[in-house]
Amino acid sequence: xxxxxxxxxxxxxxxxxxxxxxxxxxxxxxxxxxxxxxxxxxxxxxxxxxxxxxxxxxxxxxxxxxxxxxxxxxxxxxxxxxxxxxxxxxxxxxxxxxxxxxxxxxxxxxxxxxxxxxxxxxxxxxxxxxxxxxxxxxxxxxxxxxxxxxxxxxxxxxxxxxxxxxxxxxxxxxxxxxxxxxxxxxxxxxxxxxxxxxxxxxxxxxxxxxxxxxxxxxxxxxxxxxxxxxxxxxxxxxxxxxxxxxxxxxxxxxxxxxxxxxxxxxxxxxxxxxxxxxxxxxxxxxxxxxxxxxxxxxxxxxxxxxxxxxxxxxxxxxxxxxxxx
Amino acid sequence: xxxxxxxxxxxxxxxxxxxxxxxxxxxxxxxxxxxxxxxxxxxxxxxxxxxxxxxxxxxxxxxxxxxxxxxxxxxxxxxxxxxxxxxxxxxxxxxxxxxxxxxxxxxxxxxxxxxxxxxxxxxxxxxxxxxxxxxxxxxxxxxxxxxxxxxxxxxxxxxxxxxxxxxxxxxxxxxxxxxxxxxxxxxxxxxxxxxxxxxxxxxxxxxxxxxxxxxxxxxxxxxxxxxxxxxxxxxxxxxxxxxxxxxxxxxxxxxxxxxxxxxxxxxxxxxxxxxxxxxxxxxxxxxxxxxxxxxxxxxxxxxxxxxxxxxxxxxxxxxxxxxxx
Amino acid sequence: xxxxxxxxxxxxxxxxxxxxxxxxxxxxxxxxxxxxxxxxxxxxxxxxxxxxxxxxxxxxxxxxxxxxxxxxxxxxxxxxxxxxxxxxxxxxxxxxxxxxxxxxxxxxxxxxxxxxxxxxxxxxxxxxxxxxxxxxxxxxxxxxxxxxxxxxxxxxxxxxxxxxxxxxxxxxxxxxxxxxxxxxxxxxxxxxxxxxxxxxxxxxxxxxxxxxxxxxxxxxxxxxxxxxxxxxxxxxxxxxxxxxxxxxxxxxxxxxxxxxxxxxxxxxxxxxxxxxxxxxxxxxxxxxxxxxxxxxxxxxxxxxxxxxxxxxxxxxxxxxxxxxx
Amino acid sequence: xxxxxxxxxxxxxxxxxxxxxxxxxxxxxxxxxxxxxxxxxxxxxxxxxxxxxxxxxxxxxxxxxxxxxxxxxxxxxxxxxxxxxxxxxxxxxxxxxxxxxxxxxxxxxxxxxxxxxxxxxxxxxxxxxxxxxxxxxxxxxxxxxxxxxxxxxxxxxxxxxxxxxxxxxxxxxxxxxxxxxxxxxxxxxxxxxxxxxxxxxxxxxxxxxxxxxxxxxxxxxxxxxxxxxxxxxxxxxxxxxxxxxxxxxxxxxxxxxxxxxxxxxxxxxxxxxxxxxxxxxxxxxxxxxxxxxxxxxxxxxxxxxxxxxxxxxxxxxxxxxxxxx
Lengths: 325, 325, 325, 325
What we know:
Distance between the termini of chain A: 61 Å
Pfam families (chains A, B, C, D): PFK
Pathway (chains A, B, C, D): Carbohydrate degradation; glycolysis; D-glyceraldehyde 3-phosphate and glycerone phosphate from D-glucose: step 3/4
CATH architecture of the largest domain in chain A: 3-Layer(aba) Sandwich
Binding site for ATP (chains A, B, C, D): 14, 75-76, 105-108
Active site (chains A, B, C, D): 131 (proton acceptor)
Strand order of the largest sheet of chain A: 3-2-1-4-5-10-11
Catalytic activity (chains A, B, C, D): beta-D-fructose 6-phosphate + ATP = beta-D-fructose 1,6-bisphosphate + ADP + H(+)
Order of helices and strands of chain A: EHEHEHEHEHEHEHEHEHEEHH
Oligomer: homotetramer
Number of helices of chain A: 11
CATH topology of the largest domain in chain A: Rossmann fold
C-alpha cells in the first residue's frame, strides 16, 4: 500500500442539501492533515473524462450555507462498464489521486464499492441522499433538510386546506423508502401517511377520512410516498370516486425538496462525517462508509450499508395513528 | 341612511396570506371606533346560512402571523342568484348587520357590488388575492407573500438544477394575470417567463435556451403562468421534442403558494386597508374597495377595480430580457 | 395504586419550541387511550392556584406548528416549599387528577421528582428545554429548533461580516452547557466557539484570529456561550484591546432563540415522547422522563436525567478545529 | 462629453440585502448594452487604491440570492478629502472607467455627488440602504428584506413573551429614521413603537402598557428605534422602575438585520433600478439616483435624494394606535 498523498472527492447521484458542507469538511480536514485535495466534477462522469481541479480552502469558502453541490453531480451510464471503470482509474493515475471520497446514495456507493474492489483502490463513502435509505447511519446528509422543507410546504398547504376545508394528498420523495413520508406526516400533524412499506386499503382510508371530516375536522392531509403506479393522484382519484362530496386536491412537491440551505443537523452531520472520512484514510480504512450511530462516528463496510431494505421504525405508525384521531 | 352600528366581515374566494391580518385590523379598528363587529364564516355561504359570531379583540388575538383565514372561505353558487342574495340580506337584518366588509378578489368584489346595489347596502371591499389582478391598488393582500414563497421554491429548484445542469419549467399561479410569473422570474434570476399577456414562440424560446446552455450556463429555469391549455407541461414537452439532448423537468408549485405566514408588506397592507375600511364606513362611503396607491389610502369604486384587464408593466419584460443574457 | 383516569399536563421553566407539539401529543394519545386530559396553566403556579381546564382534541388543534406553549409557563417560588407542594397536591385531589405529565428542563423535572416522591404520585417527565442538558435522551424538545434559529441568525451575520471584513462575537444561550454554542459553531462554519466546558485562553484566541485575518479570511465569527461574567462582550473587549486594528462587533441573540415554529425533528421528538408518556402511564411507570436514545423510546429515572454535568462530545472540538483553518 | 465605454460599479457604506442583485443587474444590463463593466472593491477605498477587476456575466452568476455584497463595502475616511478624491479620479483614468454606478445610502450618494461635481464625471446612484431614508424612491434596496427579518425575529419573541407573559423592548436599526420601527411594529402586531420622529412620554407609555396588561393581554412588545441615548435599555429601565411588578426584557436585534437572502421585492427593485442605471447612462444622465416611484422608474438629482428629513407617513401612527387596543 502506497502512502496516500492526494485525495479526490466527488458527489454522485441525486443531489442533497449538505453535500457542499461535506465537500468543505473533507477539503479542509484533508488539508489540515497534510493531504492534497482534488475536486472531481460531475461524479463518475468527471472521473472518466478527467474533469479535475485542485482544491484549496478558498474553493470551499462560503459554501457551507448552500444547497446543491459545487462539484455538480450526474448519473453515469459508462462508469459501471469495465471500460468506464478503467478510464476512471486512469484518471486517478494521471491526476496522482491515491484515494477517493464519494458522497452519494445507494447507487453511488455501490459504484464506489465496485471500483474499490476492482482496482484495490481506497474509497471512502459519505451518506449523501435525502431518502435516508442507507444502513449503518442514523441519518443521511440531506434527509433532515428535506424533512424540514416538506414540513414547511405542508404547513402552508394546511393553511389553505383549513380555509377551504379541503382534503389534500401531498406527494413527497423517498424512492422506495417511506422515511420522508412517515416522519413528515408526524411532523405536520397529517391525518395519514401512505408508504411503500405498508399496504394501504383505500376503503379503510376513505372511511377514516370520512369519520374525520364528519367529526368536523377542518381539513385532512394525507402524505403519499412517490411511486410510479400509486402516487398521490391515484389515491385522490380513488377517494373522489368514493366520496364525490369531498373537495379533494393533489400537490406533488417535486424537485424543490432537493434544494435549500442545509439544516443545522445536516451541516453538523456533513462536518463530522467529512472529518471522519479523512480520519479513516489516515487509519488505512478503505471501502467503508462513514456514518453516525448513537452519536458515534462509525465505519460501515459498503456491502452492509447498501442493503436495500432499510425500514423506518414501525413504532412511528402507532404514533401517527394515535395523534390523528 | 341609518346610522351604522354593527359591521359584518367575511372572506371570500381563494384564500390569501394576510386575510387574517385584515380581519384583525377591521375588528380592532372597528371596536376602537365604537362599532360592533360580527364575523361571518365561509364567505357568502355563511351569510346565506347565518353562520355569524360576534367578535371581540380576543377573537383576533395572535392571528396576524397566520396564513389562511380564520373565517374560512368558499365559493358560493347560491349567492349570485336572487334567492341567495335575498337570504343573505335577511341574515344581515336578523343579525342587525348594518354594513359589510368583504375581503376577496375579483369575483368576491363583483358579488359585493351586486349585493350593495341590490339592497342599497353599504359594502366596503378589501383587495384579498394572491393574483394582484385588481385595479386601483398597487398591490393586493397576499401577492407579496406568494411572490416570496415562489421565490424560495425556485431558489431551491435552482440548487438542484445547477447541480444536475437541468432545464426546469416551473408553473406558478396567477389566473389570467402574469404578475406572479413575470415578477418572480425577475426575482429568481430565471431565464424566461411565459405569461398570458404575451404570446410565446416555442421556437424562439428553444433557440434562446439552446444558446444559453451552449454558453455553459449551469441551468435554465423558465417560469410559466398556470393555464388550462399551455402550462409548464406543454412547454416542457415541446422543448423536449425539439432538443432531446436537454434534461428537462417540470415543477408545478400548486397550493403551497396560497399558505404561509404573511410577509411584512402584506401585513402592513392589511393593517392599513383594514383601518381604511372602518374610516370609509365612518365617512359614509359605500361600494368601494380600499386600496393603496403611491403610499396613499384610496377608495376605488367596485366597478373600476374589477375590470378584468389589469396588466403588469411592459418595462418588466425588458428587465428580464436584459438580465437573462 | 388507584387506576389512573385523569392526567394533568403542564409546561414549566423556560419555554422551548415543540412544547405545544408535546401538549398535543399527550392530549391526543391520552384521549385515544381512554384518559381524560386536564391542562394546567402557568406550570406549578397553576397547579397551586387551580388554573386547570379540561382538554379535548379541539384544544390542541393546529398548535403543532406554533412556538411557545399554549399552557404558558412560569418559574414558581412557592412550589418548592412544603406549603406550595401541599396546595399543588390538593388541586390534584380536587380536580381528580391521578397523574401528571411535566414538560420542562432540569429544574422542572427536579420539582416533578420531589412532588412524585412526597405524595407517592405518578409523574412522567418530557425533556423540554433548548439547552439539551438532560441526561438519558439524545436530544431535548426545542434544542434542534434553537440550533437552526441560531444558524439562520449567524448566516445573516456572516453576510454583513464578509461585506465589511469584520470580526463578530455572537452570544448564544445554553445556560451551563455548551451544546448550542459548539454545535452551532460547526453548523455555521464559525472560526471558534467559547464554551463553559473548556477554558479559553484569550491570547491563543487572538493569535488564532490574527492568523486567520492575515491569511485573508473575509471575516471571523466566534460563537460564545452565555455567561454572567465572560460572555461575548468580555471577549470582544479583550480582543479589541489586543488588536485595535480589528473591527470587532458583538451580537447577543437573546430571547428570539426561544421562539419560532418547531423544526421537523423537534415535532417528531415531541410526538414520540408524548405518545411514550401515555404508554408509560399505562405500564404503571412513574417518576421517569421519556427520552429517545438511539432511535428507541427510553424511560429514565428522574434522579438520573437531572444530573448536572451532561457534556457534548469532545470529538466536536476536533471537528471545529480542523474545519476552521 | 466622451462616449462612455466602461462603467465602474461599487457598493459603499452599510451593506444591505439586495446589493448583490443590483451588482448583477448593472453588470448584465451593462454588458447587454455593449458596455464593459469593472467591479471596484471596498467602495471608495478600492477606488482610491485601485482594487478593480473586470466583470463578465460569470462574475455575477448565482449572486442574486445572496445577502451582503461581493464587492465588499467600507466607509472611507480618505475619500472626502481633496487628495482622496484626486486619487480616486486617477484610478478611473488609469482603469479607463468613464462612468460610475454607486450603490449605497445617504453618505455614499453624498460622496457620489461631490465626486461627480468635482471632476465633471458621470455618476449614477442606486438607493442601497436598509433604513429607507432616501428621498425620491418609494423604497430602498434592503429595506423590505430587513423589515421581514425584524418581523421574523419579533414573531419568535412573541412566542416566548406570550408563554411567560412578559414585556419586551425590541431595538431595531434605522439610524435617524423610524421607518423600520414604525412599520415593523404594525407588521408584528406590536403594542407600541418608539421612533425618533415622535417624542415619547414614558409615563403615557407605562400607563398604556399597564392598561394592556391588566386587560389580560398575554404580552406586550414595544419596538424601539436605535438611538445613542434612549434605546430599548433606557425605556426598559424606566418602565421597570415605574412598574416593578412587570417582567420586562430587552432584545437588541443588532447586525443580523443586515444579512440574509433578499426578499422578492428587494430583488425586483434592484433589478429594475440596475437596468435603469444603464438606461440613464445611455441617455446621458449624470448625478442622479435611480428610484421607483408609483411603479415608475424615476431619476432623482443627488441633491434632492440626500435631504436628511425623509419621514414616514403620520397615518401609520394612527394605524398602530387603533390596532394595539
